[in-house]
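Subject: sequence -> structure tokens, single chain

Hey, anyone have a minute? Need the predicted structure for the following. Not urgent.
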Amino acid sequence: MAMRSAGKRVGTRGSQKLRHRGAPTLADVAAYAGFAPMTVSRVINGENNVRQETREAVQAAIAKLKYSPNLAARTLAGAEQIRIGLLYSNPSSAYLSEFLVGSLEQARLSHVQLVVEKCDPELHEEEVVRQLLATGIDGIILPPPLCDSKRIHDVLTKAGALAVAVASATPRSGLLAVRIDDHAAALSMTRHILSLGHKRIGFIIGNPNQTASAQRFAGYKSALAEAGITIDKSLIGQGLFTYRSGLKAAERLLSLAKPPTAIFASNDDMGAATVTVAHRHHLDVPEDLTVCGFDDTELSRSIWPELTAIHQPIADMSRAAVLLLVRKIRARRTGEEEDCKYALLDFTLVQRDSDGAPRR
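Reply:
Had a minute. Here:
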């Protein structure tokens, strides 16, 4: 069940001025965002009966006003401290940065202590999880690539621990989940490239150990099948979601006797690497080669030309992960049922300067 429901708008966002210069209150946030105080309270407490767009508007108002929930009031109300662990191991620093920002912001709003630990895949990862659980942690957030780790899943299952997998295309049984539709996103991007007139479209696959990689590749193949184009295996490159692996894959693709006129990389790091290799080959992007990425991290906007990419709402996904865990933990403590087990967020295609029609 996705996290969507109602929140009644009572005014125009930002239209009401603060009446005092002291620390902003919940009422100030409500007035600024244009929602009832009860709606703001629901967002802060991570309740699921709030629409996603309402949640985002309230969070924007909280950030603008630098509002901080009243810790003393929560303590007097008998709210027990919640501790959540966040394990990370991601080769993309841009992805990880956005993920951490979203998690930390939501942890502050939800009055949650966030414990961040590094966990290298296939290198004592089970021990790291066991040690974290031994500290009395209430739940764990697993961003990629750890979201697809069988070893971690086995430890969590045996311990009966709560955890949320973020960006896993096929989350393992028993885990909460936050994701986008990777297949539909890649399908959308490939259709876009086809609409520009490209027929020879290269694709760089991500890490084969991550389920999102297979779904993005499947979306690419589905779009070509729709267009009646036979898959050319020579146009498929294998990457690992790293910049260096993108360099290697793009070099092979652009060294073909008949290279592709467009390359769709499974993430921004490999997309940026493809632009670099194109420049090495004295190719103009997008006049000679269209390059598109996936994620829409800061990296996609810091290279030249800026990448056309699928926007995956990374910070919002990490916020949703914190909210899911908080609700599950509170429900477990009170013995209540909590039906919300996953959140499916929207993706968008962001067109910039790296795509264009093939050179005639």
